[in-house]
Amino acid sequence: MAGGLVKYRHLSRDSAHRKALLRNLVTSLIEHESITTTWHKAKEAQRLAEKLITLGKRNTNASKQGAQAILFQPHRHLPKLFNELRKRYASRPGGYTRVLRIEPEKEDQAASAILELVDGPKDMRLAMTAKSIAHARQRAEEEGKEFQMGDMTAWNVRKVTRFRKDGEKDLEAMVDKFERLFEDGDDGVEEVKKKRVYPNLQRSR
After folding, report:
1. Could you please report the per-residue DSSP string of the chain?
2. How many folded domains does the chain comprise?
3. In angstroms, rounded to a whole number, what is the distance separating the alpha carbons of residues 177 and 157?
4. Sign for the pseudo-dihedral over CA of 199, 201, 20, 9
5. 112 and 131 housed in the same domain
6. pLDDT tens for residues 132-171?
7. Which domain does 133 fall in, by range?
8. Which GO molecular function terms does the record list (predicted)?
9. Which residues are registered as beta bridge partners of 36?
10. Are 117 and 97 in contact (CB under 8 A)?
11. Distance of alpha carbon 90 from its chain centroid, rounded?
12. What's the pLDDT at 116?
């Protein structure tokens, strides 16, 4: 309707090309669990990815047909969606994906972002939280003080472990990994994909 609100971003494409683009992004997300694209594409793909994982959790013939219509090469990706991801998110009521804004590679490049599946092996918030804890522990040890977790770090710990199976164990393992890297003189940037997430988006899902 003229003058009405735009319910989605057109992404400078017609309907068919936009749909194909989002299907491709979501298929890559299911396969790799983390993709880098523009901010606007990531936000639109996130909506479709959330819908897709909801279909996977329903695990019915109708939901399988719906997922098949979204995914490219469904024979490759449906088993992961309806087995591994369905089990991973069984107790999570929503919020299966996260968009994190990152610095563009070039000054004239569009705003970039990482779209990732939460609670997976490439969960960036888990890595960032572990790195913060490792840094704080190292600093406390150097100053001869007792380690105390800050409010923001504690909030992030709850976020990354609440629905993750063996979340506290995985987090502690990642902290140990960063501590070993720091001892070897490595700042751990490889563990967070050499991207600096903007501070004002730390609390966005």
Report:
1. -TTPPP-S--TTS-HHHHHHHHHHHHHHHHHHSEEEEEHHHHHHHHHHHHHHHHHHHH-SHHHHHHHHHHSSSHHHHHHIIIIIIHHHTTT--S--EEEEEE--SSTTSPPEEEEEETTSTT-HHHHHHHHHHHHHHHHHHHTT------HHHHHHHHHHHSSSTTHHHHHHHHHHHHHHHHHTT---GGGGTT-PBPGGGTT--
2. 2
3. 16
4. negative
5. no
6. 999 999 999 999 999 999 999 999 999 999 999 999 999 9
7. 124-184
8. structural constituent of ribosome
9. 114
10. yes
11. 17
12. 96
Annotate 123-137 with b (16+ C-beta within 10 A) or e (fewer): bbbbbbbbbbbbbbb
Count CB neighbours of 192 within 10 A.
20
User: Residue 149 to residues 124, 129, 135, 137: CA-CA distances in angstroms?
Assistant: 19, 11, 11, 9
Structure tokens at 182: 């720091």
Q: Which CATH number do you get for residue 35?
A: 3.90.1030.10
112-117 sheet: strands from edge to edge:
34-38, 112-117, 97-102
Displacement of CA 69 from its chain's centroid (Å): 23
- If asked whether residues 106 and 146 sit together in one domain, one would say no
> Are 110 and 138 within one domain?
no
Phi/psi region, residue 113 (left: phi>0; alpha: psi -120 to 50; beta: rest), is beta
Express each pLDDT in 57-103 by its tens digit: 999 999 999 999 999 999 999 999 999 999 999 999 999 999 999 87
Count of residues making up the chain: 205
Alpha carbon distance 51, 96 (integer Å): 10
